[in-house]
Write a structure and sequence with these properties.
Length: about 300
């Protein structure tokens, strides 16, 4: 799933075409070239749909991180992850308007392609939905919408969701209904700020006094965003452990320390979805793929 999420980044924003990238493409094991679907202004929203021996994989493309200076980081956070939750027809509670609009921009063609591949593979074929960063927020909303159409699609089981560096897709009411219907595993890396966004009231209080970024966090008061699924934390050494409240407190402390030190590069590198390289810590690949994709 991590490699599928990485593959989705290769849906070209200009042409909408998909160009396979290694080592990620070869790891997924697509039976044929997956189908890219993009939409919205400048094709900014995209998904990649392909059939593997395990099932049909719908991978949502995330957003590329900004440069590592504070104004750029603040603009990126504001534009992508800070959005007032809104009620949407067909979904419980309230959801992140930006993530929903991203899904809506590709929904009709996505639905038709999933139905086509499901018809070819058979109704018992499982559907997996994945995504990194913004793609993770999209994945949760998309999975809920697909589950709403289970009878039309002939799905025998709800979609299974795997997200990486995912922000929160909706409020408490959405999260409660989502977790009652969908199984999701969410992976969050050491020093990655994005899984804490949009911020809860407790996170807002923690970041409130940080210059500049604190004002941005205060704008999210009373939004009631809540994480979904079962959350796992990738430690600095690559070991994966379940998330709990004390661990979240410790993690936010580490991230704040990096902001105080003005070490924004470490925070941005932690969010990267690729193998370890210049400008990428490679934590998500290292933790979830255990060197099966990336060379040691």
């Amino acid at each position: 799933m991590m490699s599928s999420a990485a593959c989705a980044y290769n849906v070209n924003t200009t042409t909408g075409q998909y160009l396979p990238s290694q080592p990620y493409y070869g790891t997924v094991g697509y039976k044929s070239l997956p189908v890219p679907i993009s939409g919205g202004s400048d094709n900014i929203n995209a998904v990649l749909i392909g059939t593997t021996s395990d099932g049909i994989v719908v991978a949502c493309r995330g957003t590329l991180p900004p440069t590592d200076d504070l104004p750029s980081v603040l603009d990126w956070l504001q534009d992508v992850f800070f959005s007032t939750p809104k009620s949407v027809s067909g979904l419980p509670g309230k959801v992140h308007d930006g993530f929903y609009m991203a899904v809506n921009a590709v929904w009709d063609r996505l639905f038709n392609e999933v139905a086509k591949q499901l018809d070819a593979a058979g109704p018992a074929t499982p559907i997996y939905v994945t995504g990194h960063s913004k793609g993770g927020g999209m994945a949760s909303i998309l999975a809920m919408l697909l589950n709403n159409e289970a009878d039309v699609l002939g799905l025998q089981t709800p979609p299974q969701v795997f997200t990486f560096a995912s922000p929160k897709p909706g409020d408490t009411d959405f999260a409660r209904a989502y977790d009652a219907n969908i199984t999701q595993q969410s992976y969050e890396n050491y020093l990655d700020l994005v899984p804490f966004l949009p911020p809860s009231e407790s996170i807002i209080r923690i970041f409130a006094d940080i210059p500049l970024i604190g004002d941005l966090f205060k704008n999210a008061e009373d939004w009631d965003y809540t994480p979904v699924g079962t959350r796992y934390y990738i430690q600095r050494n690559g070991k994966i452990v379940p998330v709990n409240s004390p661990l979240d407190d410790f993690r936010t402390g580490e991230i704040i320390f990096k902001f105080v030190e003005n070490d924004l590069k470490a925070v941005l590198d932690a969010h990267c979805h690729l193998c370890k390289s210049i400008g990428c810590a490679g934590g998500y690949m290292r933790g979830t793929c255990q060197d099966a994709v990336c060379q040691k």
